[in-house]
Amino acid sequence: MSREKTRHIVICGAGIIGLCCARELRARGHAVTVIDRAPSDRDGCSFGNAGMITPSHFVPLAAPGMVALGLKWMFDPKSPFYIRPRLDADLAAWGWRFMRASTAAQVARAAPVLRDLNLASRELYVALAAELPDFGLVTRGLLMLCREASTLDHEGAFAAQARGLGVPAEVLDAAATARLDPGVRLSVAGSIYFPKDAHLDPSRLIGSLTPRLEAAGVKFLWDTEVAGWRHDGDRIAAATTKRGEVAADEFVLAGGAWSPGMVRGLGIRLPMQAGKGYSLTLPKPRQLPHLCSIFTEARVAVTPMGGSLRIGGTMEVVGLDETIQPHRVQGIIESVPRYFPDFTPEDFAGIKPWRGLRPITPDGLPYLGRFGAAPNLIAATGHAMMGLSLGPITGRLVAEIVAGEPSSIDLRLMDPDRYA
């Protein structure tokens, strides 16, 4: 326990970001209450994701070419990226900002920040693995699998960019790729190998972290949705819920895709869209890769988790709509035999698809820091596909903000008021 002034802190959201914040804040001696809209047997975005820790993912979603690619994919019902057209002012404003952020200059500014966040989080995961019961952390790296030689050439330039940022990356031909991951037969021209990437089982992580936090004194309020706030001047005195008020000294907004709705009553507009993703988990796959991988052309992620194999993908921007679209799931299934030729679509018969909503900011960077309109409210949301990857470092940074300490990573590009 640290000797800093202890406070009561309410964390709004019990996904991996909220849990990591709770862990860091409780370790510093603060009283911590976590409230979440879901019941305790939840299956939100932190559970069914690909479980990847990704220093290789230093390019934000808003990048040159993404707008054109998104327009092209909108007419393919099985494509990896889709925005449902609808009359929605928030979507229109988000789309305009996304287009403006999709520049090489913005990527150049964001890439070092995302690199630093991911590398720091990876080290914190390694330390966490020595403390918690086994949650399946594997630090063997990630393969970006390329079916086409032209894709491999393009990704080779990306590998050079990675090395320029200090992220190790190797270009491998088909034979070298097969030697690195002999657990599965591949149909690829080659791959990019990122040795600093890692993966884990998110369900096992949360299943071991939550009871450990409860044993340490963190209080959880399940099935408790934030409906509003009680003010004390310009500060928040309490979150209001259907179960009554939850008072605290500080509040952390870690509600994922539901975060914007939580703060509208404060006069805060937080540009964000929910990006729905799907996954399917084969409990007994016919072959089991040793490494996690991404099908580069198909934008599908593949992760071995113990003896099972999780395959997931798509970015479907359709609002807070959690219904499963079978054609999107079918697109994921059909991609697998193209890279793993011994698999068939029939392998997925009877496998129930999972879906989750990722919180997508217009520029692909999280919201992290204090709000000007409510100085005792701290944003820790908007991590898009990197929520699990960035969980531990987000918790560390939030604890530094609460303590008033200098931030270990520059937060200026992640200012939650940057669109105010």
What does this structure look like?
The model has no long low-confidence stretch (mean pLDDT 94). The chain has helices at 16-27, 66-73, 89-101, 104-129, 149-164, 174-180, 202-215, 259-263, 326-339, 391-403; strands at 8-12, 31-35, 52-53, 81-83, 142-146, 170-173, 190-194, 198-199, 219-221, 226-232, 235-241, 244-247, 250-253, 273-282, 292-295, 300-305, 308-317, 354-360, 367-370, 377-381. With 420 residues, it is an alpha/beta fold. Strands 4, 5, 6, 7, 14, 15, 16, 17 and 18 form a nine-stranded mixed β-sheet that branches. It has two domains: 8-46 and 204-271 and 363-414, FAD/NAD(P)-binding domain (3-Layer(bba) Sandwich), CATH 3.50.50; 53-104 and 135-198 and 272-360, D-Amino Acid Oxidase, Chain A, domain 2 (2-Layer Sandwich). The protein is globular.
